[in-house]
UniProtKB/TrEMBL annotation:
Subcellular location: Membrane
Protein family according to the UniProt entry: Belongs to the TerC family.
PANTHER family linked to this entry: MEMBRANE BOUND PREDICTED REDOX MODULATOR, THYLAKOID MEMBRANE PROTEIN TERC, CHLOROPLASTIC
Keywords (A to Z) from UniProt: Membrane, Transmembrane, Transmembrane helix
Organism: Sanguibacter inulinus
Transmembrane feature ranges: 6-26, 38-60, 80-96, 103-125, 131-148, 195-218, 224-245, 252-275, 295-317
Gene Ontology CC entries for this record: membrane
Entry keyword Cell cycle: no
Keyword Transmembrane: yes
Protein name per UniProt: TerC family protein
Topology in membrane: Multi-pass membrane protein
Length: 333
């Protein structure tokens, strides 16, 4: 896939412009968005991502267009998992509703910058070491198994990671928010506020999710441009998605199983791709035969969409059944 430098520059410019619209239109006027507002903005971001994919399809062909859409759908679905952690962080830090948009936006911006560095590092490893596909694939299979194993457990409370603990140790921190300020001066000494701490928490937490999601999308496409674009567009709409489905997150009881299936599938796909890349084959009657055919992008995209649809429908049906049973029990009492 030949992507000229000016196309990279234009894409980055569009992403920066979308961030600027968010900062100017939302952060400068703090407010808690309504469901209607969040829905419109979420639809807008998804629309931009779809238009970008159609442009890729038109300019570079259906193969790359399909890889982008498979990557975007995967990153978008995995980003819902991020939202569970975001809810825990925002609840733990008791972020006032009017400030949550700013917290999420700056935290996501931090995550986008760090994830971009992660993507280019991963691309460099793939370019120079073909065996890294084995590591990515095995890691995703293990992650899928771990997620499926722990998905039935009760959600844990948020605990500060090493980045936050180090930040608190180095910098003096206020106990309460000071409006929406990130730092403040007390007795002539500069302190950071919980506002900055929670932004760092969201950014660093998302970087941990990148350890799963970036190898996953490299299992669907090895084009750095598509990996970057799919990650960026999925992250940019995450803030609006948070406010849109905040009340639905606890109802998606089977989502973790679906994400585990997707990660496991992509992990196996990566391992198969590694066998082909490293030209691993077996001998049958004196003839070298490739062990397993590679999984086509169309099949990957179809599997991802079907799994997400089934787990979402099953989750909502389960939630409806539980609520009905609870209502009947309450009526009997």
């Amino acid at each position: 896939m030949d992507v000229p430098l000016w196309v990279w520059a234009l894409t980055v410019g569009v992403i920066v412009a979308m961030l600027a619209v968010d900062y100017v239109g939302h952060v400068r006027t703090p407010h808690a968005p309504s469901i209607r507002e969040a829905a419109w903005w979420s639809a807008g971001y998804v629309g931009v991502a779809i238009v970008f994919g159609l442009i890729v399809w038109w300019v570079w062909g259906g193969t790359y267009g399909g890889e982008y859409f498979a990557g975007y759908v995967t990153e978008k679905s995995l980003s819902v998992d991020n939202l569970f952690v975001f809810v825990l962080i925002i609840t733990a830090f008791r972020v006032p509703p009017i400030m949550q948009q700013k917290v999420l936006l700056i935290g996501i911006t931090i995550a986008l910058v760090m994830r971009t560095a992660f993507i280019f590092a991963g691309a460099a490893m793939i370019e120079n070491f073909s065996w890294v596909f084995y590591i990515f694939g095995a890691f995703l299979v293990y992650t899928a198994w771990a997620q499926a194993k722990h998905s039935s457990e009760e959600p844990k409370e948020f605990s500060e990671n090493a980045v936050l603990r180090l930040t608190r140790r180095i910098f003096p921190t206020t106990d309460t928010y000071v409006g929406d300020r990130l730092t403040t001066r007390i007795d002539g000494r500069r302190h950071i506020t919980p506002m900055l701490i929670v932004m760092i928490a969201i950014g660093s937490a998302d970087l941990l999710f990148a350890v799963d999601s970036v190898p996953a999308i490299f299992g669907l496409t090895q084009e750095t441009y598509l990996v970057f674009a799919a990650n960026a567009f999925s992250l940019l709409g995450l803030r609006q998605l948070y406010f849109l489905i905040d009340g639905l997150l606890d109802r998606l009881v089977y989502l973790a199983y679906g994400l585990a299936a997707i990660l496991g599938f992509i992990g196996v796909k990566l391992l198969i791709h590694a066998l082909h890349t490293n030209e691993v084959s077996f001998i049958n009657g004196g003839e070298h035969i490739t062990a397993i055919p590679e999984i086509p992008t169309a099949l990957s995209l179809g599997f991802i969409v079907v799994v997400l649809a089934v787990t979402t429908v099953a989750s909502l049906a389960k939630d409806r059944s539980v609520r009905r049973a609870a209502a009947e029990l309450g009526a009997e009492k």
